Amino acid sequence: MRLKDHPVLDFKFEEKKKVSFIFNGETLYGYEGEPIAAALHDNGVRVLRRSPKLNRDRGIFCAIGKCSSCLMNVNGIPNIKTCVEPLKEGDIVKYQDKKGNIRGD
Amino acid sequence: MSEEYNIVIVGAGPAGLAAATTASKYTNKILIVDENIKPGGQLSKQTHKFFGSKNHYASVRGVNICNILLDGLSKEKVCFRPETSAIGFYKPDTLIIQDKEGLHKIKGNKFIFATGAIENMVSFENNDLPGVYGAGAMQTLMNLYGVKPAEKVLMLGAGNIGLIVSYQLMQAGVEIMGVVEASPFIGGYHVHAAKLRRMGVPILTSHTVKGVYGDGKVEKAIIHKLGGGFEPLHGTEKTIEIDTLCLAVGLTPSVELLHQAGCNIKFIKELSGYVSVHDDMMETNIPGVFVAGDASGVEEASAAMLEGNMAGLKAAYDIEGFNRSVFLNEKEIVEFELKSLRTGPFCERAQAGKKRLMVEER
Ligand SMILES: Cc1cc2nc3c(=O)[nH]c(=O)nc-3n(C[C@H](O)[C@H](O)[C@H](O)COP(=O)(O)OP(=O)(O)OC[C@H]3O[C@@H](n4cnc5c(N)ncnc54)[C@H](O)[C@@H]3O)c2cc1C
To answer: A46: closest CA among B245, B165, B143?
Structure first.
């Protein structure tokens, strides 16, 4: 959900460009230029990858590009820090298993 | 082929921006890189009116302070590159950065590392479950991108950050189920705690989180009471239904780059972790390499800005060798402001830490 009437901040969503992207085969929407992880969170997606050793679910933790918890496969490239990766129209985002796969699956 | 700058600043938080502000008064060809999409670091998410000294924007909102700093920078002298990570430093003059196009070598005369800090984790069962978020991450989602970050939150930590972020979450329509604090005392300012209590949020001191549980995401937390020696008291467990546990349990300076560069790194408890040894003008043991802000010890934004001013001043002076009395005068002003800032009751720790850092250096 978006914060449309915040007491302090005005996000001016009406001036922003809505774009579509694909997450695990499903079409989702977000605003252009916002972090992919923020757009996914808004769509209710919490699990972004599985950990390399113990195979555990991982979601956002720091959201400033420092902790590696949100690494995903974006347009075929694994290990993208989605909390600092701006969303573009048509991005293909995939859940990342362990260390990721260069072929994108 | 590599680009050349007089001063290269890593991090566009308040420390990095302040360094550029001062340096650009005396020199040009300044580069700032930041790996985030927007500049401003942690400060750009602070929607509350600031605590801190009057000279340093107290009662101005953090978001606005960033804009004031950014607007003041001269485009001819300062180049800003967002979405660019600094990933290595090679003595004496080479920084490796990474952006969309790949890796690049940047040559510089002076370097200022203002890389900030990273939020701490604490140990409890399933602390890696999606839905365990740092307080700064909640702020990134709600205050920078307007995403409602959660429905029901339990906050761990009753320092200023825990209290303020709880209030900001409520402004975003999120329900705060409680604030849990291991110590017997509330660490943050009384006014913030009182505000939450008035809004019906319980603040439970001498309590901590035993664990969070759920299928692929946080669905509930179990908290328990702690005894005088911080030992869990059996039979005091309580289950709270939440979808997010927010951690506000302090920050650790980000010194990886400084460490890799070969700076002398020391553990100073009062500064929240490993920090790089530096002199009174923020220069490390590697000549021409400076540190400023939370990366040199976690304090707050006013101190970060002053340290940035200091580093920027010295770096510019060493390059341009401008009028010495102008230099000494400006140095004295910054020193005085830092000193008066660090005499407040909440700053004793930082003051003691900085003292230890400087003494141990000799
Ligand atoms: C919830 C919260 C509330 C706060 N409230 C207050 C308050 O009311 N008053 C107050 O004075 N202070 C407050 N603070 C503290 C204040 O925000 C910080 O002390 C201040 O932002 C530190 O500034 P900095 O420039 O050192 O670091 P940061 O603001 O953390 O900025 C560091 C920057 O460096 C970038 N970076 C790091 N590593 C790299 C790299 N390798 N390559 C490229 N870029 C990199 C990061 O992306 C970031 O933008 C608060 C902090 C938080 C988290």
So the answer is: B245
Residues 6+ apart with CB under 8 A from B59: B49, B50
In a domain, residue A99? The reply is no
pLDDT at site A24: 95
Residue B114 alpha carbon to ligand 1 centre in Å: 9
CA distance A74 to B176: 34
Whether B133 has its CB under 8 Å from any CB of chain A: the answer is: yes
Rounded alpha-carbon distances, angstroms, from residue B342 to A29, A38, A50, B22: 47, 37, 44, 21
Q: Residue B146: pLDDT above 70?
A: yes
Residue range A67-85: mean pLDDT, rounded: 95
Q: What is the CATH number of the domain that holds A23?
A: 3.10.20.440
Cβ–Cβ < 8 Å for B313, B290: no
Model-level pTM? 0.94
Q: How far is the CA of B184 from the centre of ligand 1 (A)?
A: 28
Domain count, chain A: 1
Question: Contact B249/B157 with Cβ under 8 angstroms?
Answer: yes
Residues in chain A: 105
- Helical (H) or strand (E) element with B257: helix B256-261
Number of inter-chain CB pairs under 8 A, A vs B: 107
Assembly ipTM? 0.95
Chain A nearest CA to B137, separation (Å):
5
Name the residue range of residue A45's domain: 18-94
